[in-house]
TrEMBL record:
Pfam family, one: TruD
Keyword Isomerase set for record: yes
CDD domains registered for this protein in UniProt: PseudoU_synth_ScPUS7 (cd02576)
Species this protein is from: Oleoguttula mirabilis
Domain TRUD: start-end pairs: 390-666
One GO cellular component term: nucleus
GO MF annotation, one: pseudouridine synthase activity
The protein, known as: TRUD domain-containing protein
Lineage of the species this protein comes from: Eukaryota, Fungi, Dikarya, Ascomycota, Pezizomycotina
Length: 769
């Protein structure tokens, strides 16, 4: 880990060269720019100079705090209580004694690779072997019929069936044992949903409900078989009816009402982790489906983020107890409420960003103090323009994937009906990665996960089989690829004949639905970005006849606008009509209308009211040149030769109704704060995280200190700090705070601020595949 940290935090000449290679002013983009490839082309204020910088060199350079609908910014306000309950000490001693799941340290350490969450053996198997104990009493175990044995073999295979029958025997011979003290048997991946359904029923029937099954949330298609909980006459585990082991009323709405509601809300603080990664870990430890958790939107992995999470019918002490197992996350601030959380149920996010190694045109030949003054002038001008004029509300690059075959390419093939091509695009890889695999060394410039992915796909293409070795080699984050491979590889157990090797739609249906919809949404985003750039090129910030605005947004008529649904990135989900799609239609669709020439000239509407459609069968297109542009672009080779007026498909998941998105965005409440500072070391932390603040305050309180710790003054854009004396350090950083609405991309805001000069930090390896 120490070597990784050194590689990330110490500046290397190659990294500096990446910035120094920029030719001319910062707002000139290079040919074949990846942004231009997805329609990101224009700047609102090209006349305002930008600057060059590195974003997310440390994950503490990117702090994100959710903003609730009330306007409150979510912060971690208390450290979790991690004292163990008496009955938990024996259960968790083995899993915590090595310190491998400590909460984040006060001094956050960077890591170039994501931290993997490993299951805690003691919580599932107590470290036991699957075989029966040697000292088990000699008790007769009912024999299974040959028919039942064959059913289990057909579903699970011989090896897993043996483990299941051993588990059953152990339960019969040791009836005094609690369910949690028995092992859990995990099946191999069962791709066929009907087989999984059969498995649940067969286990319950054959073993007379002494075993129970559940589908694993962290491994698609895997079934866990475990001992069923014993039940006394009064309720679960022999407790009085409606109470848990601590005597708390849990059953019925009355008990939860006394707590405040059936939904437990809490604050989730995490460092360098995906939201879903943490929730999958929690769900596994709590033995509940991950879908029980609710949240308003996922947050970036490479950052420090704070957000609200809710879970149905859960006591706080159970999640409090997980904090001692936490790796780079904290859960606290528990409160029961009557309602849960919906995706998109937030006003937006507050960002506190550290931009490092900032470089400005005209700084050549200046001494340190002169560079600092120049930087303050440039940053003040850029921030003021950003606050007042806003930025084009483009979909950011993360919307289109991070590899050479973008998600929008897959989505286009799906909409074209080329489902085989869509599958091939998802399974595409660079043969060069396999050369890396053959010459693996510690200096490799490619992440091992990408090499393993390529090797697994090559193995499948050569053999047509998805054996255990392939499954184990495919990294878990590539679930779409693995799901497709396993589905297409399925064979008849008796004849060995492949059953569905050309069922491309069936293969795509194996991908989790949110991810599957992401592909077609990415194509819509490509079209929207391209149309937004074209509109800006033609009309700039002028409102013109035929522009679209949301019905009722400015005349007090609430009937035209209803609650949006959004996906995990905070983006509005495209919702086809109820009779034309598998999607439910609980709310009416947001409507837009074109404005007249008189309305455009009246001043009632400005550019921040104008929307553009995501292509679909249930939207209006602008009644001006931009409406025609949709037809031209989508009908071109680049647009896939599609018709914007014909977006219905027989496959309902990709039958797109469309949606609307504001052309322009600007910071909420006009909040833009900047601090320009000089620093020496590349790894110097500029800001304090919520967790660090709480730990500092706790230490000060325990020591009786004054608490006077000054992390630097924060300055408004109109009064960017001056006169702080001589500075001897040579590097310049800009610390910026601003707020954006939901579904707006901070990367696109930074693009406008820096005029394309913000470069994402890259570790010393490539992620291209």
């Amino acid at each position: 880990m120490a070597e990784k940290r050194t590689a990330e935090t110490n500046e290397s000449p190659s990294k500096r060269a990446k910035l120094d290679d920029t030719n001319g002013t910062a707002h000139h983009t290079a040919p074949n720019d990846p942004e231009e490839a997805v329609g990101i082309s224009a700047f609102v204020s090209p006349e305002t100079p930008g600057f060059r910088c590195i974003v997310k060199q440390r994950y503490t350079d990117f702090l994100v705090n959710e903003i609730l609908p009330t306007g409150e910014v979510v912060h971690l306000t208390e450290l979790p209580e991690t004292k163990r309950r008496p009955q938990q000490k024996a259960e968790t001693h083995a899993s915590t004694s090595d310190g491998s799941h400590d909460t984040p340290a006060t001094t956050v350490q960077d890591s170039a690779e994501p931290v993997k969450v490993e299951p805690v053996p003691t919580l599932e198997t107590n470290g036991e072997d699957a075989s029966m104990p040697d000292d088990a009493d000699e008790v007769s175990v009912p024999a299974l019929s040959e028919e039942d044995k064959q059913i289990l073999h057909d579903i699970f295979g011989e090896g897993t069936t043996a483990k299941i029958t051993d588990l059953y025997a152990a339960i019969i011979k040791r009836p005094d044992r609690k369910a949690r003290d028995h092992v859990t048997v995990r099946s191999d991946i069962i791709s066929d949903k009907s087989k999984r359904t059969e498995a649940h029923g067969a286990i319950r029937r054959i073993f007379q409900s002494k075993l129970q099954t559940e589908t694993m949330q962290d491994q698609v298609g895997v079934i866990a078989v475990k001992a069923a909980a014993t039940r006394g006459p009064g309720g679960p585990r022999g407790q009085p009816n409606g109470t848990d082991r601590n005597g708390a009323i849990t059953k019925g709405k009355l008990g939860w009402s006394e707590l405040g509601g059936e939904y437990l809300h809490f604050t989730l603080y995490k460092e360098n982790k995906d939201t879903m990664e943490v929730l999958y870990f929690m769900a596994a430890q709590l033995k509940v489906p991950v879908k029980n958790f609710q949240f308003a939107g996922t947050k970036d992995r490479r950052g420090v983020t704070v957000q609200k999470v809710a879970i149905h019918r859960m006591h706080a002490h159970r999640i409090v107890g997980l904090n001692r197992l936490a790796k780079n996350w904290v859960a606290s601030g528990f409160e029961h409420k009557k309602h849960g959380l919906d995706l998109g149920e937030l006003t937006g996010n507050e960002f506190l960003l550290t931009l490092r190694d900032c470089q400005f045109d005209g700084e050549e030949g200046l001494d340190g103090q002169q560079r600092l003054e120049l930087a303050k002038d440039k940053v003040a001008a850029a921030a003021a323009s950003f606050r007042n004029r806003g930025f084009l509300n483009y979909y950011g690059l993360q919307r289109f994937g991070t590899f050479s075959t973008g998600t929008h390419v897959v989505g286009l093939k799906m909409l074209q009906g080329d489902l085989e091509g869509a599958v091939d695009s998802i399974l595409a890889y660079s043969p060069n990665l396999l050369l890396e695999d053959e010459h693996t060394n510690f200096e490799s410039m490619v992440p091992q996960d990408d090499i393993n992915r390529a090797a697994a796909i090559r193995t499948w293409r050569e053999t047509g089989q998805a054996g255990p070795e392939l499954v184990s080699r495919m990294p878990r984050r590539f679930q779409a690829e693995l799901s497709i491979i396993q589905y297409l590889s399925r064979k008849d157990r008796r004849t060995g004949k492949q059953l569905q090797d050309r069922d491309w739609q069936g293969a795509l249906m194996q991908i989790q639905r949110n991810l599957r919809l992401m592909y077609v949404h990415a194509y819509q985003s490509l079209v929207w970005n391209t149309a937004a750039g074209r509109r800006w090129e033609l009309y700039g910030d002028k409102v013109v006849e035929g522009d679209l605005v949301i019905v009722g947004e400015k005349d007090g008529d609430a009937s035209g606008k209803v609650k949006e649904e959004v996906d995990e990135d905070g983006e509005p989900i495209v919702r086809p009509a109820a009779d034309d799609s598998a999607l439910s239609a609980e709310d009416n669709f947001v409507r837009a209308r074109p404005i007249s020439k008189e309305e455009a000239e009246s001043g009632k509407y400005d550019i921040f009211d104008v929307v553009l459609p995501q292509p679909g069968f249930d939207v209006l297109y602008p009644a001006n040149a931009i409406g025609k542009f949709y037809e031209e672009f989508m009908g071109s080779e680049a647009g896939g030769k599609l018709d914007p007026h014909n977006m219905r498909r027989t496959w309902k998941d990709i039958s797109l109704s469309g949606g609307y998105r504001k052309v322009m965005a600007r910071p909420l409440r006009g909040l833009v704060e900047c601090e320009v500072k000089q620093y020496a070391g590349g790894d110097e932390q500029m800001v304090e995280t919520d967790l660090e603040r709480l730990k500092r305050e706790q230490a000060e309180a325990q020591a009786g200190g004054s608490g006077d710790v000054n992390g630097g003054d924060k300055m408004d854009v109109d009064t960017v700090g001056r006169g702080h004396g001589e500075a001897s350090d040579t590097n310049i950083a800009v610390v910026m705070k601003f707020q954006l609405g939901s579904s707006q991309y901070a990367t696109m805001a930074l693009r406008e601020l820096t005029k394309g000069g913000a470069a994402a930090y890259k570790p010393d390896y490539s992620t291209t595949r």
